[in-house]
Amino acid sequence: MTTDGHDLASLGQRHIWGHFTNLSLMQRIGLPVIERGEGAYVYDANGKKYLDGLSGLFTVNIGHGRTELGAAAARQADTLGYFPLWSFGHEPAILLARRLAELAPGDLNRVFFTSGGGEAVESAWKIAVQYFAKVGQPKRRKVVSRHFAYHGTTLGALSISGIPAMREPFEPLFDWAVKANNTNRYRCSSCANAPACTLDCADDIERRILAEGPETVAAVILEPMQNTGGALTPPEGYFARVREICDRYGVLLVSDEVICAFGRLGHWFGCERYGYQPDMITFAKGVTSGYAPLGGVIASDRLAAPFIEGDGSVLMHGLTFGGHPVSCAVALANLDVMERDDILGNVRRHEPLFDSLMEGLRDVPMVGDVRGAGYFRVVELVKDKESKETFTPEECNWLLRDVLSPRIFNSGLICRADDRADPVLVVAPTLVCGETELTFVADVLREAITYAAGQYATR
Ligand SMILES: Cc1ncc(COP(=O)(O)O)c(C=O)c1O
Asked: Distance from the CA of 349 to the CA of which of 70, 84, 138, 358 falls in 20 to 30 A?
């Protein structure tokens, strides 16, 4: 209830245009209103408790209700509520840039701040294009990303994103963003049945570069572990091969770590886990654990050099709220919590348990595959385990939206049912979870999928 006596859910139904939200469905079933959070849990406006199995949106890495982040925001707002990074600096941005440079591998030392992830991806693209123009390779403008990868929704980032349903209403998009195969070993057309991955997925990036003409390609943008398609982990040797390919053709490698950084995979950055050195890292989400909006690009010294040593020409790009002082202060407090509470260690310590809990779901009807790493896992659902036959779009809609989502939600777990590629249930709990919470996740999934399989059989 609002203080003037209105029901929040009804007000939300009337006035909120939800992101990727089926407004007509919301008119029918109501808008869930989340009121507060504490640790791994959130509570709705009726006081019901849920395990936040998606960390908000892969974001609340240190968990909910950390008062020290609010206190850091208040202190900074009292001292300097806003100032831009357009030819000025301020303490929180400077200290955060230094800290990120210290955490990032190799010579990734210069930070361009944004307000979120999509802006970070577009900024990396612009940095790459303008860098190449400055070093005498102005034809290099294209970018290679992977089918079904999600890199944001603004038109530049959407061009890089590879999800057909999201692109379709806005096409034609930039045709200088081309797509290569992803690393879905479960459904790989070339090696799903081979004893080991042949790295054809990595070689497909080389084929794309050659088809476009290497002299026109600026960057390859990849997540360490791809979200859409369902927690697509890189096969052994994948990133070493990709790095070789990028070096062979003088193309920059951008690691889009909007989800995979800040502990999600048990490391500060996903590229550390998979042992590769990118030329740029894009980040957002977990840098503040979502307590304030912030993102950015950490670029190598090599990319910044022509802007420092050259004729003084400027990166033609800027955002009013990029590196907002309050957000940077919150990020610094967030990194303090991560270090003090050994959040990365918590993920690493519990990984074997999470592995076995998730692997244990393979015997559940309809579970075709179980994948992921760190605190980011999926279960892929299939009609037939043997043939891997998937569901029709109509069946998917029924299974995910009518049966599984309400069942899981009513059991007190928030997770994502995703059919932007093959249907998967996605869990990415906050990084403070331990045995109790991870076991709860697996138990709820087992019960709900078993129930849904029964419903499907008698439908
Ligand atoms: C890998 C990746 N890149 C970019 C984005 C876009 O970030 P934002 O929603 O902050 O624009 C996302 C969002 O989930 C993402 O997962």
From this structure: 70
Torsion over CA of 155, 160, 162 and 164, rounded to 10 degrees? 20
Q: Determine whether the shortest distance from the Cβ of 259 to ligand 1 is under 6 A.
A: yes
pLDDT band at 26 (very low <50, low <70, confident <90, very high): confident
Q: Whose C-alpha lies nearest to ligand 1, atom 2?
A: 151
pTM of the model: 0.97
pLDDT above 80 (res 368):
yes
Residues 6+ positions from 435 with CB-CB distance below 8 Å: 350, 353
178: nearest Cα among 152, 198, 206 = 206
Asked whether the beta carbons of 21 and 15 are under 8 A apart, the reply is no
The predicted-structure confidence for 162-206, as pLDDT tens digits, reads as follows 999 999 999 999 989 999 999 999 999 889 888 999 999 999 999
111 in Cβ contact with 355 (< 8 Å): no
Instruction: Identify the band that residue 30 occupies on the pLDDT scale cut at 50, 70 and 90.
Output: confident
- The b/e string for 268-307 (b: 16+ C-beta within 10 A; e otherwise) is bbbbbbbebbbbbbbbbbbbbbbbbbbbbbbbbeebbebb
Taking the CA of residue 57 as reference, the ligand 1 atom at the shortest distance is 14
Residue ID of nearest Cα to ligand 1 atom 8: 117
User: Is the shortest distance between the CB of 322 and ligand 1 below 6 Å?
Assistant: no
Cβ of residue 151 lying under 6 Å from some atom of ligand 1: yes
